[in-house]
Structure formats: structure tokens, C-alpha cells
């Protein structure tokens, strides 16, 4: 899971409402990454300025060459699951199982919650 010799990173999970279907939504996310200098010709998990993933799309399950929903590795990443739990609470991830079961399966991973001066959460960082 961890990539050696890589700086810590800030991770966040957001919920959006959109009229876009999943593939156009993915293309929009890729375009935003490109605007921030993301180059997709580098090895997977190498350092980057911005990484936007489409984790879920309602209760849809999609397997295509361009896009897999739910995200194929989300259940292995505590830095994704923990903020998702804070946002949505426990729920069934389509085709995978309960969010809490996925979190429990991520033993040994560590996530540090970043807070502002008032103690409000601002992000999660994988260390």
C-alpha cells in the first residue's frame, strides 16, 4: 500500500451532486487534475499535486475499461474509508460489503486527522 520515499499527503472525501453520468464525471475529474499539473505518464502512486478519484456513484456498480465503480482499491485504503465513514456513516458499499468491515480489515494502516485551531477537522493525512 505505502510507497516508500514519498512525502505524506492530505486526503479528503467529498460528496457531490451532479447531473453527469459516471464516465463524463471521471473525465471532468481528470481534466481538473490536468489543470493542476497532474501527468498521467508517471508510475502509479508516485507523488502528485492532485489525485481525484471517483469512489462511488450512488449504488451503481460499473466495470469498464475506463472506470470501475466502486473504486477497485478503496476497501484497502484506510485513508479513504475513515473520512468516508465520517461523511456517510456505516453503509453497504455495492458489491464489497459494509464500510465498517472494510475499515476493520485495514489493520496496521494509520491515518492522522488534521484539525484547525478550533479543533475542527480539516483533512486526513496518511503517514
UniProtKB/TrEMBL annotation:
One of its GO terms (molecular function) is kinase activity. CDD domains: HPPK. Keywords: ATP-binding, Folate biosynthesis, Kinase, Nucleotide-binding, Transferase. SUPFAM superfamilies: 6-hydroxymethyl-7,8-dihydropterin pyrophosphokinase, HPPK. The keyword Transmembrane helix does not apply. Pathway: Cofactor biosynthesis; tetrahydrofolate biosynthesis; 2-amino-4-hydroxy-6-hydroxymethyl-7,8-dihydropteridine diphosphate from 7,8-dihydroneopterin triphosphate: step 4/4. Its EC number is 2.7.6.3. InterPro entries: Hppk, Hppk_sf. Gene3D superfamilies: 7,8-Dihydro-6-hydroxymethylpterin-pyrophosphokinase HPPK (3.30.70.560). Residues 5-88 form the 7,8-dihydro-6-hydroxymethylpterin-pyrophosphokinase domain. GO terms for biological process: folic acid biosynthetic process; tetrahydrofolate biosynthetic process. NCBIfam families: folK. PANTHER family: 2-AMINO-4-HYDROXY-6-HYDROXYMETHYLDIHYDROPTERIDINE PYROPHOSPHOKINASE. This is 2-amino-4-hydroxy-6-hydroxymethyldihydropteridine diphosphokinase. It comes from marine metagenome.
Amino acid at each position: 500500500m505505502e510507497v516508500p520515499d514519498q512525502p505524506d499527503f492530505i486526503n479528503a472525501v467529498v460528496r457531490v451532486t451532479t447531473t453527469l453520468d459516471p464516465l463524463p464525471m471521471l473525465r471532468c475529474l481528470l481534466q481538473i487534475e490536468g489543470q493542476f499539473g497532474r501527468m498521467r505518464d508517471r508510475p502509479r502512486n508516485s507523488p502528485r499535486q492532485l489525485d481525484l478519484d471517483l469512489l462511488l456513484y450512488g449504488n451503481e456498480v460499473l466495470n469498464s475499461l475506463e472506470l470501475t465503480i466502486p473504486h477497485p482499491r478503496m476497501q484497502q485504503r484506510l485513508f479513504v474509508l475513515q473520512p468516508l465513514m465520517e461523511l456517510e456513516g456505516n453503509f453497504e458499499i455495492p458489491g464489497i460489503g459494509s464500510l465498517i468491515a472494510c475499515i476493520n480489515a485495514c489493520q496496521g494502516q494509520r491515518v492522522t486527522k488534521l484539525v484547525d485551531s478550533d479543533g475542527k477537522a480539516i483533512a486526513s493525512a496518511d503517514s
